[in-house]
Amino acid sequence: MPHLEIDDLTVSYEKDKPALARFSLDVGQGELVSLLGPSGCGKTTTLRSVAGFIQPDAGRIVIDGRDYTRLPPNQRDIGLVFQSYALFPHLTVFNNVAFGLRMRRAPRKVVHARVTYALRMVGLEAFADRRPAQLSGGQQQRVALARATVIEPQVLLLDEPLSNLDARLRVDMRQEIRRLQQQLGITTLYVTHDQVEAMSISDRVVVMNEGKIEQIGAPESIFAAPETVFVADFMGFDNHFSAAVESAQADKLTVNWGGVPIELHWHSKVGAPHRGARAEVFFRADNASLSAAADAKGLSGQVILHTFHGNEVRYLVETEVGEFGILQDSAGQRFENGAEVSVQAQTQKWIAIIE
Amino acid sequence: MIRRHNQNRTIVLLVAPAFVFVLVFFILPLLFLLSQSVLPEDGGFTLTGYADFFESRVSRIVYQRTLKLGLIVTGICVLMSYPAAFVLARMPARRRSFLMLLVILPLMTNAVARTFAWLIILGQRGMINQTLLALELVERPVRFMYTETAIVLGLTQLFLPLMVLPLVSAMENIPDDVLEAARSLGANRLTTFLRIIVPLSSDGLVLGATLVFTGSVTAFVTPAILGGSRLLLMSTLLRQEAVILFDLHAASVVAVVMILTTLAVNLLLRVLRVQQV
Amino acid sequence: MVSRWMYVSLVILYSFLLGPFVIIFMASFGANANLAFPPQGFTLDWFANVFETSQFVDSFWISLQLGLSSTIVSLVMGMPVAYALVRFQFSGSGMVETVFSAPILVPGLVMGFAMLNFFVLLGDMHVMTTLFIGHTAILFPYSVRVISASLRNLDPYVEDAAVSLGANRLRGFLLVVLPNMQAGIAAAFVLGFITSFNNVPVSLFLSGPGVTTLPVSMLSYLEYYFDPTIAALSTLLVIFTVVLVQTAERLLGVSQFV
Prior knowledge:
The complex is a heterotrimer.
Chain A: E1 4-14, E2 17-27, E3 32-36, H1 43-51, E4 58-63, E5 66-67, E6 78-81, H2 93-103, H3 108-121, H4 137-149, E7 155-159, H5 167-184, E8 187-192, H6 195-201, E9 204-209, E10 212-217, H7 219-224, H8 229-234, E11 239-248, E12 252-257, E13 260-268, E14 278-283, E15 288-292, E16 299-308, E17 312-319, E18 323-329, E19 340-345, E20 351-354
Parallel strand pairs in A: 3-8, 3-9, 6-7, 7-8, 13-20
Antiparallel strand pairs in A: 1-2, 1-4, 4-5, 9-10, 11-12, 11-14, 12-13, 14-20, 15-19, 16-17, 16-19, 17-18
Helix pairs in contact in A: 2-3, 2-4, 3-4, 4-5
Chain B: H1 7-38, H2 48-55, H3 57-89, H4 93-107, H5 111-122, H6 127-134, H7 148-172, H8 176-184, H9 189-200, H10 202-218, H11 221-226, H12 234-244, H13 248-276
Helix pairs in contact in B: 1-13, 3-7, 3-10, 4-7, 5-7, 7-10, 8-9, 10-13, 12-13
Chain C: H1 4-29, H2 45-52, H3 54-87, H4 93-105, H5 108-122, H6 127-152, H7 157-164, H8 169-180, H9 182-198, H10 201-206, H11 214-224, H12 229-252
Helix pairs in contact in C: 1-12, 2-12, 3-6, 3-9, 3-11, 4-6, 6-9, 7-8, 9-12
């Protein structure tokens, strides 16, 4: 039985334009699930509904078998970490973390012991008497984390917790959140718009768009096999072209790529593709390679720009099918702007989507 | 903005007490005033009060004088504040905040005290007359009191801060880079001032002008002390009609004209501001 | 960009702003009763005269009571309005804002006159009550504006954080919002008090026999007497204001909200 159940949740701020439409999700005990999507996709609405700050128009929220749907937010057993951290500016770190325990009327000794333990977990024992304004962004983030977890909530909710940190700190904090979450074995919903963050931290990822789920799956499967054009775009498939299906089997289909027939994995929302159907083909810049035009047969093209990225060089190649970005090992053969090249597809990592 | 359920009920509970208070004790008296100006005690609806006001030589002169002095005061305030505000806005924060405090402080002292100083300066044996006599520029003391000059001086001193404050805060928001960019593109100081600083601070100017002008045409204390009953402005006229002549009908007409004047100025300047955007 | 002649403008501005105060200070210590300038001699008689004039002493206490009570009431009633305006998006918020800024748009003297007529209509009301109502009404714009500004400085999510940790809305407000608004409330208080304490136009019409505010009694004193007592009183008031504002600034850093 799932620990957190969200059934058919629907929220509309404006009439006929639901921010969340029949959203359903089950999260297992101790699982970390990310809600990933651009702003306005409904991920924060989902989170705030679970927290109780938004009353859904329809649907149910059940935690550990108890119906939470109509419960006021202060009576829910939930820990919430805000994007802005929302630390109480007038209270010390200790009193920030102690706030939830005091609301639950925990005895003084218990408060002291548990707050001290929670601060030790996030490495901030020495800062107990500081005010939030005296802390760095990363430290404030840790206080927010300690404050939300010290009450030992049924479910932990994190709303873009890393978006106010610089890139380097974000990677550290990501690991720290994951470590803490696993140590505590706490069921967690994690909202983010950053696909790398979602993949690296989650057991499962929910990609959302316009109030609906686009795809749910393990990070690996979402990364490798997006099922919709939206997910492919969002997961960093940088090259895209449309092509007509020439033939289709159960697991592969063939399209014509500027005269070169290529076989691709496919996914369709509208049943098996037929000959002539339009397929949207996606591939990443590192899943194709270049060679000199004379040497090989592939799609021929011309280099129009190259940029150096350390270990790799990125080429922008113009072909009759379109412009493609292609990464090459910088130690390998180099091409100048204007060079005639041939593009080889590594089609096992390409994907065709029929919508 | 946060959304919550039961929002409407919460909002009503939060706003209602003060709202009812303002409605009953502020809006209602104003409506009553309005009705008083068109419904004299002994008759039905009439606009004769307004006709009388604009036909009477005395009240027409008073109204014109009030507007004229308001414009003069506003103009002087603009001229005095503009360069000074620019200097203030470019100062290091510490020194500026101290100087700004000195601008605010007069605002926090009552108008009677601030106007009283002009009695000492402009009086028969006041500072200016003593100086003029000592230099033998005049033989007898000059009468400054109860003149338009006296009122203009008093009002300018009173409302100057209301021009300086919005101008400084508008100019603070002009980045140094923008001025340097203008200079690097070949603009001289005057051009930079006229083409960059003035347009970018026009919001502050419009706000300041609104405050100073409406303040000047409705101020009571300064014209009462420095103009007295010899040189009436709208506010002192209102007081005279209401308290001395006890003509409530005429007084309420004066009051409504004052409201309409301030509203018109506010509206006009708001339109100016919108057009610039 | 700042050239020398611009500094000259600064000097002119400040001498015009502050010069009158210097003259008042000097006059309040001068021995000549007719306000001739420059003052001759030195005396503290005018200060003594302030405290011996019962008209000033009585009206000071009335102004003090009036300032405190109308400021407190306008704050207590204005704070929920500011909270609603800042924290919620609702249809009619524009109308609410207009109604609460109206007392700034309407000339004070007109307001005093309108209120006087209205209160006469309502029947016998104590002068103090009418003064209190009038002052409270004109203070709303200040309370609502300053409190709104200080609320905007506070992350709206801290309240949600308190609620998610188990506090109800009211407790969340009392434990988390209110303590963080101390400076804003103090600023609104000082501003409101000073506005009420200095008000002439509204008080002028609403004052009654024996119940007069300090600035109004200063004004009527000037109609009969022309001596440095008012200068001495003005000096005292300037000192009073400076001390009040400085104390509020030292304790709570009020100036950021004014």
